[in-house]
Design a protein that fits this description.
With 64 residues, the chain is an alpha+beta fold. The chain is built from one helix and three strands, in the order ββαβ. The chain has one helix at 32-51; strands at 6-10, 19-24, 59-63. Strands 2-1-3 form a three-stranded antiparallel beta sheet, covered by helices on one side. A hairpin with an 8-residue loop joins strand 1 and strand 2 (19-24). The longest helix has 20 residues, at 32-51. It is flat. The two termini are 15 Å apart.
Amino acid sequence: MAGATYRLYRSSNDSAPRVHFASFNSIRSGDFNRQNCAMTLGLLTTNLHRADPSSTVRFWCAVE
């Protein structure tokens, strides 16, 4: 049985409230997909705010 699918979203400056950025849907069970989404979220957030500290873009993971 496949693990739960997690999707990584980012906020948008357009009229869309969220933009799909990535999907994590490995067949591995447990928290594998959640952990990979969370790791990617952390890397993107850290790098974005280093590059542009005034950025209002936000990333988040959601289980689907």
